[in-house]
Amino acid sequence: MPEAPKNTLKPTTDYNLELKNKKTLQFIEDVTSNADEVQKKVLEEILSRNAHVEYLQTRGLNGHTDRETFKKTMPVITYEDIQPHIDRIANGDTSPILSSNPISEFLTSSGTSGGERKLMPTIEEELGRRSLLYSLLMPVMSQFVPGLDEGKGMYFLFIKSEAKTPGGLVARPVLTSYYKSTHFKNRPYDPYTNYTSPNETILCPDSYQSMYSQMLCGLCQHKEVLRVGAVFASGFIRAIKFLEKHWRLLCNDIRTGTIDPQITDQSVREAVMKILKPDPKLADFIEAECSKDSWQGIITRLWPNTKYVDVIVTGTMSQYIPTLDYYSNGLHLVCTMYASSECYFGVNLNPLCKPSEVSYTLVPTMAYFEFLPVQRNNGVTSSISVPKTLNEKEQQELVDLVDVKLGQEYELVVTTYSGTSKTLSL
């Protein structure tokens, strides 16, 4: 069996950007053109390393690592099915229940899928997979928008509150986990991850101070900004509304070269002062633009070199498209990646497409993917109900990554390196 390409694509400084992009794009080509063999290898690796964990032993897999046995033996499950195991881990049980690797933390869901936050166990090495997926985004984007290495990205990124389980494990959102990791904080220089926001402003736990300082830094570097964004469309619009409310304070800071006293986080103040210098001309320019009756095109007016807005505008976020078009003068709205708390999935290989046409290419090294067809009853779409155990016929309904059919709707089922097996993605 051919070796699956490993998750070892890392930024380095010993070759030029063009060659780095070429290698990244070749990686995507390699793993997607050989997707079925890669998926077999991924599943084999997941099952072999976790062969002795409690969950797999109780399901009778008996050390088998082949896809056929896995499909016959392992049922599709929901979060509720493994919640008792998760509760044991959360309460301090360190035995290999779901994973042979130690559970490093819990990632919390947004709560939108069921009204209550769910805890997804994860292992340290998953940070490497998330970093890998992030490293694919800009080489793809650079095929469509040249020169992105010649400026900066103004992204509004935030951490959220975290908690500890009774057993002492941290529980926090996946992005908070990533931003607080050494993968993000100590990332090597890369022109594509050159942001206007210093790490200290992103990692500030006070949401007002974080937003204010990130906006201030973005305004100070307005000519260097080539792309703007946030994770979700709603988050970016919140940043524009913040500017609309606080531009006078921001202008005063830029005019005087001082930071508003409300910003009390010392690490934030020190980081911002490395960027902020007295600039009355810039302050006058911002004041003139923000004082106008209309804020139409405010993004391209204040950040004139911006080429696109990088935000998620699919699903429930599509309601914000008209507002973003208004503020950006119709710049491309780009959705670059597909990810969730339990797994990062794939990238958009046609990022300048219309929001209504967004599709993602799953990167087959991220996890083992299966697809549960969605039934249609008299034209109405409904998900297949998932029983505790599937009979042979129902098991056969699961479709592998390379066998999905164009036009058919599916529920995504993931088996991850963290040990969560055949779980319906939230």
From TrEMBL:
Protein name (Swiss-Prot/TrEMBL): GH3 middle domain-containing protein
MF annotations from Gene Ontology: indole-3-acetic acid amido synthetase activity
Record keywords, A-Z: Ligase
Family the UniProt entry places it in: Belongs to the IAA-amido conjugating enzyme family.
Record InterPro entries: GH3, GH3_M
Annotated Pfam families: GH3, GH3_M
Domain of life: Eukaryota
The species this protein was found in: Gossypium trilobum
Entry keyword Ligase: yes
Domain GH3 middle, residue spans: 360-419
Signal peptide range in chain numbering: none
GO cellular component, one term: cytoplasm
